[in-house]
Amino acid sequence: MKKIRLATRKSALALWQTEHVAARLRAAYPEMEVELVPMTTRGDRILDKPLADIGGKGLFLKELEVAMLEGEADAAVHSLKDVPMELDGPFQLAAILERADPFDAFVSIKVSDFDALPHGAKVGTSSLRRQAQLRARRADLQILDLRGNVNTRLSKLENGEYDAIILACAGLDRLGLSRYIRHRLDAPSWLPAVAQGAIAIECREGDDETAKILQVLNHKKTQLCVEAERAMNRMLHGSCHVPVAAYATLEGNILSLEGLVGSAKSGHCVRAHAVGHSHDPEGLGRLVATELRLHGADELMKS
Question: Staple partner for 128: which of 62, 84, 224, 243, CB 3.0–4.6 Å?
Answer without folding.
Answer: 243
